[in-house]
TrEMBL record:
Protein name (Swiss-Prot/TrEMBL): Alpha,alpha-phosphotrehalase
Name of the top EC class for this enzyme: hydrolase
Family from the record: Belongs to the glycosyl hydrolase 13 family.
The species this protein was found in: Enterococcus xiangfangensis
GO terms, molecular function: alpha,alpha-phosphotrehalase activity
Keywords: Glycosidase, Hydrolase
Residues of the Glycosyl hydrolase family 13 catalytic domain: 10-406
Key word Hydrolase present: yes
Gene3D superfamilies membership: Glycosidases, Golgi alpha-mannosidase II, Oligo-1,6-glucosidase, Domain 2
EC number: 3.2.1.93
Amino acid sequence: MSFKEKVIYQIYPKSFLDTNQDGVGDLPGIKQKMPYLKQLGVDMVWLSPIYSSPQKDNGYDVADYTAINPTFGTMEDFDNLMAAANEQGIEIMLDMVFNHVSTEYEWFQKALAGEKKYQDYFILRDEPTDWVSKFGGNAWAPFGETGRYYLHLFDKTQADLNWRNPEVREELFKVLRFWMAKGVKGFRFDVINLIGKDEVLKDCAENDGKPAYTDRPITHEFLQMMNQATFGQDTEMITVGEMSFTTVKECILYTKPDREELNMTFNFHHLKVDYKDGKKWTQMPFDFAKLKELFHTWGTQMSEESGWNALFWNNHDQPRALNRFIDVDNYRVAGAKMLASAIHLSRGTPYIYMGEEIGMLDPDYDSMEQYVDVESLNAYQELLDAGKTEKAAFEIVKAKSRDNSRTPMQWDNERYSGFSQVAPWLTIGRSAAEINVAKELQEGSIFKYYQQLIKLRKQYPVISDGSYEAFLPEHPQIYGYVRRLAEHSLLVINNFFAEETTIELPEEFLAGDVLIGNYAVENITREFTLKPYQTMAIYY
Ligand code: TEU
Ligand code: CA
């Protein structure tokens, strides 16, 4: 089966299931839930970082790429998890954080101690540039007592690696071979479009300096080297690159098969349509016209140029899409299905973030005390410094914090939602008694809907392989597209609002069949009225 027919499920290990009652999720917990994932029908599970790490950025600050974080378990636990997954026909994708390492990594420590070899592993300069770290503040920090500075595009405990050094590349390629030898079948590469820094680094006032280090031409060369030296030798491997602040043009280059870089890319433009002036720590209702334009641009251009998208609404860095795009007080279930259809029937490989399949919501915390993410804490302080009241700053954090999606998985309505028997590392969401796996499996319909979508992708080549064209691009409420493959077509219509709207269906689909939808459809008529958040796919 090709990656076009597969569906990938993301697990945030800290928050999936705690089996040794320390309040933190672990590998045996993930192993235990393999039958649940099999029931859902996903093909591959992406684990956010499980490696040794001081956890300043929840594991995205890696201190040893080939050691398991003891909080999560042992290497034996990992091997057991792999075996249990494979038994269910599920493959494992690991998260490779190759742009930077924790400053606790042996390489950085040796560099600090004065070893020249390891100093060349990092990006050291006599003068910092004006670039702003993605987690706030300047992107350079003093390198010990040397008077020099090291680059950290993220937290100051995450030092950027010098990919121009062939020894660094070989170290990283070795890491990939290590995990491939264990049977890992997929890699998700963290912010991989930032690895190629220019030789001479220049100030850049635009967008906090992003254009100076993002999507640089040499990044493509590095990816080709990595592909050739490692996963490119195994046609079953699946690779996805997380692309920060990228363009469709670049993502076509990253994913066009004949370039031999990656299979697909994540981009975040569609999840910035509720950012005021492009700034995350603001609040604004989502801009539907912009969302559509982005989906259509990426959908058609990737389709025309043989690129491939990773399709997603949620991950561990994003507040829950339900809270952002749907009137959840009235239409949580219909809305969850509509959002799911909008991407699962599109051209690309769909990702499900844990809890999405049961319609989990943001936790609805009532105090700053409950937030733990370094990014949220920094942003809160910056909002106060900029003159916001505590209340106003809190409201913004509440809407935007990455902790929103990192709350423990809601398995049942027990005290700690079946995640643990002790207080978890991050407070459980307020809705856990109402929204949980046990209840969803018993009486819910969102999980079933996801099951159906996953099956359809495998049954209908037009879903996995068809082309993409926009449908009613100017409509103020509908996001729609047509997929085509040989003599078959699929029309997908999604009403993104709580108001009904009437449209004209194209002639060619009047004789078609409804493949899936969130309301019963009696007749496909030329004049068709869509209910609140209605989604419907017609196959002809
Ligand atoms: O995220 C990359 C990234 O660009 C994020 O910082 C994103 O912009 C931010 O979360 C939105 O507010 C990746 C990982 O997914 C994230 O968890 C890590 O913190 C980051 O890289 C550093 O490794
Ligand atoms: Ca645990």
